[in-house]
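User: Before I run my own analysis I want an independent prediction to cross-check against. Here's the chain; please return only the structure tokens and, at the end, one sentence I can use as a sanity check.
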Amino acid sequence: MKRTFVYATAESPKLIPGRRDFLNFFDLGVADASQGHFSVQVIKTIPGKAVRLTGWHYHGCESQFCYILKGWVDIAFEDGTSRRMHAGDSFYIPGGVRHNEMAISDDYELLEVVVPPTMTTQNCDPPEAFKNSAA
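Assistant: Structure tokens:
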């Protein structure tokens, strides 16, 4: 399996279908270049779209790493923690860990790395720590 060099410029990322209809997902070409080892994409709020909660969910993948480029996100995790993450912050979510993005800013931009690149999303019930809360 030969991996190849790839680059993306600010003008070249390809808009791809995504998990949420209020976000745009831009593929940076790494999934093909890495022969399916991992993917890298930039995710941005769609201007003028009402931002909704994602609801509790988890992903079928090995790993998801996120680095916030712009804006902020309020996110809760199954262990009972919740926090506001800002530009310059990052978080790592192992596959199968339940989480909920409760709010995001209008200018939200995120760099996401996923292993493997074929991540699935499964909605789920909130964990016990959040059963009686708004999160």
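Sanity check: Helices lie at 30-33.
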